[in-house]
């Protein structure tokens, strides 16, 4: 029994589809949380820049920021 080119390609894609992808882990943290990993030396400059970019407020009865920056060091 000889496998045709179309069957071979179909089988190849089928195997990639089944074995090629892993399930993603669930995300941790809040939906509005941005985790920034940088050194303590760069933290001040990075915070200032990111606050200029992401500093926006949702005006509800009690104003709240759209995004919250959380900083971590590369060691943690």
Task: Walk me through the structure.
The protein has 76 residues and is of the alpha+beta class. Helix content is 39%, strand content 18%. The strands form two sheets. It has a two-stranded parallel sheet with strand order 1-4. A two-stranded antiparallel ribbon has the order 2-3. Strand 2 and strand 3 form a beta hairpin. The protein is elongated and about 70 Å long. The N and C termini lie far apart (57 Å). The relative contact order is 0.17. The model has no long low-confidence stretch (mean pLDDT 85).
List the helices and strands and how they pair.
Layout: H1 5-19, E1 33-37, H2 40-54, E2 57-58, E3 64-65, E4 68-72
Parallel strand pairs: 1-4
Antiparallel strand pairs: 2-3
Summarize this, please?
With 76 residues, this protein is of the alpha+beta class.
Strand order of the largest sheet: 1-4
Helix count, DSSP H or I runs of 4 or more residues:
2
Which regions contain 5 or more consecutive residues with pLDDT less than 50? Answer: none
Tell me what portion of residues adopts beta-strand conformation.
Answer: 15-25%
The profile of the biggest β sheet is:
2 strands, parallel
Return the structural class: alpha+beta
Radius of gyration: 23 Å
Helical content (DSSP H or I, runs of 4+): 25-40%
N- and C-termini, Cα separation: 57 Å
How many E strands? 4
Mean pLDDT: 85
Shape: elongated
Strand/helix succession: HEHEEE
């Amino acid at each position: 029994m000889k496998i045709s080119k179309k069957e071979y390609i179909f089988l190849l894609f089928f195997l990639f589809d089944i074995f090629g992808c892993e399930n993603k882990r669930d995300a941790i943290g809040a939906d509005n949380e941005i985790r920034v990993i940088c050194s303590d030396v760069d933290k001040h400059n990075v915070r200032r820049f990111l606050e200029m970019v992401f500093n926006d407020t949702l005006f509800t009865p009690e104003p709240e920021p759209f995004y919250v920056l959380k900083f971590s060091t590369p060691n943690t």
